[in-house]
Amino acid sequence: MRVLGLDPGLRRTGWGVIDAEGTRLVHVANGVITSDDKAELADRLVQLHRGIEAVMAAQEPDEAAVEVSLANKNPASTLKLGMARGIALLTPALAGLLVGEYLPMIVKKSVVGTGHATKEQVQMMVQRLLPGCEIKNADSADALALAICHAHNRETDRKWTRGGEDPLQMALAGRRRR
Amino acid sequence: MRVLGLDPGLRRTGWGVIDAEGTRLVHVANGVITSDDKAELADRLVQLHRGIEAVMAAQEPDEAAVEVSLANKNPASTLKLGMARGIALLTPALAGLLVGEYLPMIVKKSVVGTGHATKEQVQMMVQRLLPGCEIKNADSADALALAICHAHNRETDRKWTRGGEDPLQMALAGRRRR
Asked: What spans are recorded as compositionally biased (Basic and acidic residues) (chains A, B) (predicted)?
């Protein structure tokens, strides 16, 4: 099974593709899709959509995994993140791919073993889990981590997200409790 | 010129189509696109995208106008609104339509004459500006108001939004000042 991980952002959307053969993981490709921040919003969303389409055409993934980013404190940034995430969810779903959603803490737990891992720890473990992989940048490292997380969790996590509980709401509730 | 107005929401996206012939406005159609709130997020976004595509195929608009909604206080709602708005901006832009973005206060000012008009005043003026129009619901009334606003403002507003100032940031700055 080939998995496309997407770490969405309006300016930079990281992507990473891996093959999961049983428990064996193989790196396929990774990179980043950028949008022109001088272009109008609708045109930037078209650039993201076309960029994801181009990656899917080249890499032919079977399933996709998208980060359920937590909300930013700035409401305008949260809206923009929502837009980029909308495109990252829509584009593979339009092509008929199953799309998994994962919270950053689930990705960290799945890749490093703890939900409170640093970016550097995640990147180091991605490198270790995908020997020979040349990680292009921090965004594509996160996208590869998402793809790994999906390969590890797809069965249990699909049940969980389909069970009606919204992982984002759960995380926000947890955050308020702290 | 035929204008499609879109008032985006994940659960309900209002739409309205008008013809603008010089200063004369003629109602064409209006309605609402809904998504199944029991479906997964990616599938709901596909439903919105396909719904907007179906309206465009049936009505053949030349341009589109989308509401630049202000951020909700709940960050999870803001993310969802961002996703729906992303789809509302992407779908007509993908079809090559110019897409205008308007703040609610600009829409109210354009339709009623004051940026602080009530929903009821907007709906009454939409009814008056589009004689014989049967408004299906509050969401499609807002969408028709957006289409009217675009017909009134497209030249000046395009320059304004293309001038580099982000209307959402401007509005949030205004809100903070109050």
From this structure: 156-165
Angle at B75 between CA A84 and CA B103, to 5 degrees: 70
> What is the CATH architecture of B2-177?
2-Layer Sandwich (3.30)
Q: Within chain B, which residues score under 50 in pLDDT?
A: 157-165, 173-178
- By DSSP bridging, strand B24-34 and strand B12-21 are antiparallel
C-alpha torsion angle, residues A162, B79, A135, A148 (rounded to 10): -10
Candidates A154, A143, A150; CA nearest to A55 is A143
- pLDDT category of residue A118 using cuts at 50, 70 and 90: very high
Q: Helices in A11-137 by DSSP H: which ranges?
A: 41-59, 75-94, 104-111, 119-129
What's the per-residue H, E or C state across A136-175? Answer: CCHHHHHHHHHHHHHHHHHHHHHHHHHCCCCHHHHHHHHH
How far is Cα B95 from Cα B98, in angstroms, rounded to an integer?
9
What residues in B contact A41, CB-CB < 8 Å?
A: 89, 101
Distance of CA B106 to the CA centre of its chain: 12
Quote the pLDDT of residue B163.
35
Residues of B in contact with A81 (CB under 8 A): 79, 82
Contacts of B113 (CB under 8 A, 6+ apart): none
Which of B156, B155, B144, B157 minimizes the C-alpha distance to B19? B144
State whether ipTM is beyond 0.90.
Answer: no
B52 touches chain A (CB under 8 A): no
For chain B, give every domain's residue range.
2-177
High-pLDDT (> 90) share of chain A, %: 74
Whether the CB of A6 is below 8 Å from some CB of chain B: the reply is no
Read off the pLDDT band of A159 (50, 70, 90): very low
